[in-house]
Amino acid sequence: MRNSSDVLIVGAGVAGLSLALRLGAKGYRVSILQGNEPPPVYRPEMIQPAGLQAMAELGLFKSLEEVSAALVQRFRFDRMGGGPLCQVDYRVLSHATPYALITLPDRVQRLFERSLDACPTVRVHRNVRITELVRQGTQVAGVKAIEGGQEREFSACVTIGADGCGSWVRGALGIRSQVKRYRNGFLGMLVKRPPEFGDLPDQVRYYLGQGQILGLFPCLADRLCLLYMAPADRIPTMGQEGLERVKQHIARVEPSIGDALRTIASWEQVSRLVPMRVRAAKWVADGAALIGDAAHACHPHVAQGTFQAMEDGKALAEVLEDEYVWLWENGNPLVVRLRDRIFRNIGDRPHLLQKVAATEAGIDPSPLTFAERLQALGLCA
Ligand SMILES: Cc1cc2nc3c(=O)[nH]c(=O)nc-3n(C[C@H](O)[C@H](O)[C@H](O)COP(=O)(O)OP(=O)(O)OC[C@H]3O[C@@H](n4cnc5c(N)ncnc54)[C@H](O)[C@@H]3O)c2cc1C
Questions:
Q1: Among the atoms of ligand 1, which is closest to the Cα of residue 297?
Q2: Among 34, 146, 186, which residue has the most ligand 1 atoms within 8 Å of its CB, making it the best to mutate?
Q3: pLDDT range class, residue 291, cuts 50, 70, 90
Q4: Regarding the domain with residue range 2-43+104-181+276-321, which homologous superfamily does it belong to in the CATH classification?
């Protein structure tokens, strides 16, 4: 069984979905392959002002407001057991949206998925297990995968790895990468927001101790999401007793949430999160590209991963779609690398050189076709 599309995306996270949304809006045939559905994660998904801008470009800003995300403008840092350290206030920014919105990761995911319903040329295949990369000569031509118990081949002009930190695609392409598992992880919990927080619902609070961090994030309309730092290698083996100790410590740091914490009765209500840093040596190889965390995961303290994943989707969609002027002037490092690659590939292909010369000379200003652009990217023979 064979499935053929223009672009094949492995991974239906924000990176893959935002790329699909942009390509689908232009009518490209896109297949997205998603593995088993990950369980819900209890952690704040903070969309920073730049991320809100990116969502607005995708037409998702209004719907983000509708998922009852909490709006925050102030970030207060306190010494654990001591006084205030500082307060960062987004209201000083001269920006269209001088605030961040906080919701849960699956809410953001659903927004993207809902928008894809309006793109008839995009299809998401779920619970798919990829078995191998398919090559034609040196170029990647798709993947083989098991879907519904059957082996299928998914072929495409371009294959994109949007499959997160542990990217299978990155490994299959043999791309060298530094993957760092941070020493400290986080326990994520979702509780009812206590009335005391009603006064300052627009404020994120961080308590910083010696090797300890507790973050309190207003989340949704009436919830509070907690992130409690703990050594990554101890997190999997903390038993029920460990959970009680964590809750007691949190309640000592922030007594107003002691009551709300009673609703956390077992580890099933706690997400165990271990952040990773990924630095891939290159983001493009043999007719395939990496985007999002698969290419460059960063620590969650900067809360920029979702925005970067959307920016990657934008950059790649535009590279596959737009004119060279945009490429020449772009400062985005991913685009700059792709631009250099395009110029080299054009130099190696006389028919493309001729077309570019005719366009530059104003003799025949017909744009490159989609297939020619893929050749220029080195993504098609
Ligand atoms: C604790 C924590 C807090 C964070 N907080 C924030 C925040 O507040 N704001 C922010 O902007 N960022 C935050 N981030 C970072 C952000 O979550 C990521 O950068 C972002 O989700 C990356 O999106 P992605 O689509 O590249 O990858 P992912 O979201 O990881 O999506 C990858 C998808 O690919 C699927 N997949 C994986 N392997 C395969 C395979 N072999 N076949 C098919 N499918 C596969 C996965 O199931 C997943 O659906 C946080 C991260 C952590 C760990």
A1: 19
A2: 34
A3: very high
A4: FAD/NAD(P)-binding domain (3.50.50.60)
Note the pTM of the prediction, 2 decimals.
Answer: 0.84
CA distance 208 to 79: 5
Indicate the residue type of 40: P
Place of tokens 């297939």: 371
- Ligand 1 pocket list (CB less than 6 A): 10-16, 33-35, 38, 43-46, 51, 130, 162-164, 168, 186, 273, 275, 292-293, 297, 300, 303-307, 309
CATH of 184-273, one of 3.40.720.10, 3.20.20.120, 3.30.9.10, 3.40.1190.20: 3.30.9.10
- 224: which 2 tokens? 């509070």
Instruction: Name the pLDDT band for 354 (thresholds 50, 70, 90).
Output: confident
Of 217-221, 268-272, 335-339, 358-362, the range with the lowest mean pLDDT is 358-362
Which are the contacts of 75, defined by CB distance < 8 A and separation ≥ 6? 87, 88, 89, 203, 204, 206
pLDDT for residue 339:
64
